C-alpha cells in the first residue's frame, strides 16, 4: 500500500514538474523580453542595471512606426472580416450539408495550410506579378490583404467548424415549431450559439494577419507593415525598441484572448440555460 502511494506521489510530482518546466520554457523568454523593454542600456544583458521608459519614447519617435501600425491594422481588420465570413460559410457548408465533390472542397480548403508561408508568399508574388503586368497594377496593401485572406481563412474555418459540429440542430427545429421564420431562427438561435466560435475565429485570424511577415514582405511592394518594420530594423542590429514593441503587442493580444474566453463561457451558460439569445 505504501509502495503504491509512493508511486502515485512520484507520478504526480513528475507530472507537475513537467508542466512547470514547460511553462518556464514558454514564458521565460516572454518575461525576459518584457524586462528588456524597460532597460536603460542599449545592450541587452542580464542583470538589468537600471530601468527606463526611454525606448518606448524612441519607438514612437520613429517616423515610419505609426504608418506601419496603421497599415498592419487596416490589413488585419479587412483580412479578418473577409476570412471570418468565408470561414463561417465554409464551416457551415462543410459540417451541415452534403454535396458533390465535398472531398475536393475540403482538400482545397486546407491547401493553403500545407504550403510554408515563405513558399506561399513567393508563389503569390509570381502570380500577382503576372496579373499586375496584364492589368496594370503594382503590389501594395491590396495584394497583401488578398494574400492574408487566402492564408488565414482555413484557420477561421477550422475554429468555426468546431462550434458548428457541436451545434444542437433540435434547437432550430424547436424554434420553427414555435412559429419562428428562417431569419428569426438564425437571429435568435443559430447566430448566438455560433457567435463564440465566430468571435474566436476572428481573433485568431486577426492575430495571424497582424503578425504575418512572409506573405506581407512578398506582396507589400513599397508599403510597410509592422513585421516589415521590425525586420528592416533588426537587419542592421538589435535595439531595446523591439522588446518595447513586443511588449506593446503582447498586452492587446492577451486582452483579445481573455475577451474570447469570456464570450465562450457566456455562450455556454446561455446554452445550458436553454436561452441562446439571452
Automatic annotation (TrEMBL):
Sequence intervals crossing the membrane: 12-38, 73-95, 107-128, 140-162, 193-215, 241-263
Matching SUPFAM superfamilies: MetI-like
Pfam families attached to this UniProt entry: BPD_transp_1
Gene3D superfamilies assigned to the protein according to its UniProt record, in alphabetical order: MetI-like
Recorded superkingdom: Bacteria
Membrane topology according to the record: Multi-pass membrane protein
Residue ranges constituting the ABC transmembrane type-1 domain according to the UniProt record: 69-263
Keyword Cell membrane attributed: yes
UniProt KW keywords: Cell membrane, Membrane, Transmembrane, Transmembrane helix, Transport
Cross-referenced PANTHER family: PUTRESCINE TRANSPORT SYSTEM PERMEASE PROTEIN POTI
Family to which this protein belongs: Belongs to the binding-protein-dependent transport system permease family. CysTW subfamily.
Listed name of the protein: ABC transporter permease
The species this protein was found in: Mycoplana rhizolycopersici
Amino acid at each position: 500500500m505504501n509502495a503504491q502511494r509512493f508511486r502515485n506521489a512520484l507520478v504526480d510530482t513528475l507530472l507537475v514538474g513537467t508542466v512547470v518546466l514547460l511553462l518556464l520554457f514558454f514564458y521565460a523568454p516572454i518575461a525576459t523580453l518584457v524586462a528588456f523593454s524597460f532597460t536603460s542600456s542599449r545592450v541587452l544583458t542580464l542583470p538589468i542595471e537600471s530601468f527606463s521608459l526611454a525606448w518606448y519614447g524612441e519607438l514612437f519617435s520613429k517616423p515610419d512606426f505609426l504608418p506601419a501600425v496603421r497599415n498592419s491594422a487596416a490589413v488585419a481588420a479587412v483580412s479578418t472580416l473577409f476570412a471570418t465570413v468565408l470561414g463561417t460559410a465554409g464551416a457551415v457548408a462543410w459540417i451541415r450539408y452534403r454535396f458533390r465533390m465535398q472531398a475536393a472542397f475540403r482538400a482545397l480548403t486546407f491547401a493553403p495550410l500545407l504550403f510554408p508561408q515563405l513558399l506561399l508568399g513567393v508563389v503569390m508574388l509570381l502570380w500577382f506579378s503576372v496579373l499586375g503586368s496584364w492589368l496594370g497594377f503594382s503590389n501594395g496593401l491590396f495584394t497583401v490583404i488578398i494574400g492574408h485572406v487566402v492564408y488565414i481563412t482555413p484557420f477561421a474555418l477550422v475554429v468555426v467548424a468546431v462550434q458548428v459540429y457541436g451545434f444542437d440542430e433540435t434547437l432550430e427545429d424547436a424554434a420553427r415549431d414555435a412559429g419562428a421564420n428562417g431569419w428569426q431562427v438564425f437571429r435568435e438561435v443559430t447566430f448566438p450559439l455560433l457567435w463564440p466560435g465566430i468571435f474566436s475565429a476572428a481573433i485568431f485570424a486577426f492575430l495571424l494577419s497582424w503578425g504575418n511577415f512572409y506573405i506581407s514582405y512578398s506582396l507589400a511592394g513599397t508599403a510597410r507593415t509592422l513585421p516589415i518594420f521590425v525586420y528592416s530594423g533588426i537587419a542592421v542590429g538589435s535595439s531595446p525598441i523591439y522588446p518595447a514593441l513586443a511588449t506593446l503587442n503582447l498586452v492587446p493580444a492577451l486582452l483579445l484572448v481573455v475577451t474570447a474566453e469570456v464570450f465562450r463561457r457566456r455562450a455556454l451558460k446561455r446554452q445550458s440555460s436553454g436561452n441562446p439569445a439571452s
